[in-house]
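Q: How would the structure tokens look for this protein?
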Amino acid sequence: MAASLLQCYEPCRSRDPDPGFLERVRELANETGAIMIFDEVTSAFRMNCGRIHLKYGVHPDIAVFAKR
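A: Here is the predicted structure in token form.
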């Protein structure tokens, strides 16, 4: 695995990830040397005054906030 790209929160369904899911993906990325990427385009500033990963306490290697 080279990378994991995740949308952590689904605004259209108001659904949080299952407990422990993001932590496990972070562990797997660390174990395999993969890059963890969060797609925060639709969630970053809707959930808090920063980034969604601050709410969940799991820090990605890269966070995306806009698309062209």
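The beta strands are 3-6, 35-39, 62-64.

The mean pLDDT is 81.

Upvote if useful.
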